[in-house]
Amino acid sequence: MLQWLKHYRRDQLPGDVSAGLVVAMMMIPQGMAYALVAGLSPVVGIYASILPPIVYALFGSSMTQSVGPMAIISLMTAAVIGPLAAPGSALAGVLAAQLALVSGGVLLLCGLLRMGFLANFFSRPVMSGFTVGSALVIAYDQIHTLLGAELPHAHLPSAALGVGSLLLLVLARQYLAGVLKRCGLSPVAADVCAKLAPMLVVLGGIGLMAFTGLAEMGVRTTGAVPAGLPHLNLASSSAHWRALLQPGLLIGFIVFLMSMSAAQSLALKRNEKLVSNHELIGLGAANVASALSGGFPVTGSLSRSAVNFAAGANTPLASLITAMLLACALIAPTGWLALLPLPTLAATIIVAVLGMLELGILRTAWRYDRGDALAWGATCLGVLVMGVEAGVVIGVALSMGTLIWRASRPHIAVLGRIAGSEHFRNIERYPAETQPELLALRIDANLFFGNVEAVTGRIECELATHQSARQLLLVMSAVSSIDTTALMALAELNQSLKRRGIGLHLAEVKGPVMDRLRNSTLLPQLNGKLFLSTANAWDQLHNVKDVA
């Protein structure tokens, strides 16, 4: 807790100050936009950007992560509270805070129980498919706000403002950094300035609403934004706790995954080490803080954290400065925020989420592992067709299903000796020498109840193919554990081979596996020998016809 503050250096302050200022300018339009995605009043997005990063700075382990509202978490929040309360209503705000409290409580509990390994339950292709599907859903849901009405009945002034804002943002994303570099700015400064384009477009939209007749033409704005800091929020709806529990668990899971993804990418650049259990506690505390300050579920944002890093952030002090500046923005007169046009805000949302459509993982998975590519597609389609919560469940099921499917079908190689050496390789890949009386098999997986039937079936298949073999050698160099079911299956195989006059031998058994085998009856009853190496077994079993 606050280890970074104990070792803070004066030379780190300028970078933290500049990063805090830049991210604060990003957070005003972004926080308000993501609150709208969640079906809440825009000011709630700023509330969720003040206390959570302060609390995360106390407990989190990432030095540059920016914690606050995020598009996908906002979409999941809307999917949960939408059927229970009208968008923008007081009840919706209460339920959103209640959902943040549930998610935060779950994350805190997981952190205290040291369950950081949960980050491994989503494969990267599945996570990418979930992200892409969610981004498409968010973008589609904003089209009616962008155009001022449902298709095909667009409101012309709103559509002109929204589409114009969208074009400006797209052009800024594509070309502004390059133009600024050619004008003499450093690459880092140019990239940071390009990231501030949404704030400039928002200010331009506010200016148009203030000095033109767009408001009289029917262009909708965010409306009055209450001034002042958020109050302590202890409101809850006892009738909805049960309905929020399961979605809160899912949102907490996704909060952790999203945040770890963002934090790990930055930690690699800074040669820092993240502590997953500290991240769970930090994120849990941040969500509890969001609930108590009238916010909604928050997480670490990859794009905002990247801007924080690029703008010079060295420590969590940058996030503290961002939070203080946002608090000052609420203390100051907020009348100018009331003029923010919703079509412009919708344009910022669409451009932000479409930046998440990274298809590189899909291309890599398609070339490397079609199963992962299909999991990507199924997760993305699940989000689009069945909803975000269903997409999460599909993603977890596919990740776990893929793991179980692969573990249940381990690779087993028939080994032969490379001529003139003591190296043994798969005969399907190398020109290796074999012995007709000896069948050597290397099992490339741990043996457990889920794969032992497939292993014994493959062994019997190979014995049927190599009918002249009177000795079976199992090379166990890749086996790190054998459970009780697998032990019993090996004992049954041993007895079956003995009845057929075939010896069963083991080679290169790892120490932890040997320790457990010594407590079993397999070794005393083994129909063969134990060998330190495959080479020793090969030499001793050469031309052995009968079972030892």
From TrEMBL:
Q: Which Pfam families match?
A: STAS (PF01740), Sulfate_transp (PF00916)
Q: Where is the STAS domain?
A: 428-548
According to the UniProt record, one GO cellular component term is: membrane
Report TM segments.
Answer: 34-59, 66-85, 91-113, 155-176, 196-219, 239-263, 317-339, 345-362, 374-398
Annotated Gene3D superfamilies: STAS domain
GO BP annotations, alphabetical order: transmembrane transport
> What coarse category fits the chief subcellular location reported for this protein?
membrane
Keyword list (alphabetical) reads: Membrane, Transmembrane, Transmembrane helix
Subcellular localization(s) per the UniProt record: Membrane
| Membrane-protein topology | Multi-pass membrane protein
Task: Specify the superkingdom.
Answer: Bacteria
Q: Which PANTHER family match?
A: SULFATE TRANSPORTER
Name of this protein:
Sulfate permease
Species of origin reads Duganella alba
Q: Which gene encodes it?
A: sulP
